[in-house]
Amino acid sequence: MAEYMNPLQISLNLIAGIDDHVRKVAFENFLIECAALEDSTGSGHTPRFLNAGTLRQDSFMPYPSGYMHAIVMSTVPGQNVREILLNLSEDERDSILEQLAGVLE
Asked: Are 16 and 63 contacting, i.e. CB atoms less than 8 angstroms apart?
């Protein structure tokens, strides 16, 4: 897994109004999402993980001077399956399902 700055203690201390447990769980889930994206990078069926980090929120954002976690990823070439799903044959849908299962294994 890539190196991430460790904003956990800073985030837990500076974002007001959010329970400490909720912040901790959110940060842990962020790291899990980063790891999952990194693990699937190179499959050809998912976005490529490019970077991740913690950013300070501006005054117009929900928690001014708070922190937010962001993941930067590529787009995947091709069409959005949701837009074409009803026009696909059963074999095409089965193929997509097999590819998805392979990525998630």
From this structure: yes
Tell me the per-residue pLDDT of 88-97, one tens digit each, with 9 for 90 and over. 999 999 998 8
The rounded Cα 48 to chain-centroid distance in angstroms is 11
Pairwise pLDDT comparison (76 vs 51), residue with the higher score:
51
What is the end-to-end Cα distance of the chain in Å, rounded? 18
CB 74 within 8 A of CB 85: no
Cα–Cα separations (whole angstroms), residue 16 to 33, 58, 64? 24, 15, 10
Which two three-digit tokens encode residue 17?
């109004």
CA–CA distances in Å: residue 103 to residues 1, 20, 97: 17, 34, 10
Range scoring the smallest mean pLDDT among 4-8, 28-32, 39-43:
4-8
Q: Is the pTM of this model over 0.90?
A: no
Please state, in angstroms and rounded to a whole number, the distance separating the CA atoms of residues 27 and 68. 9
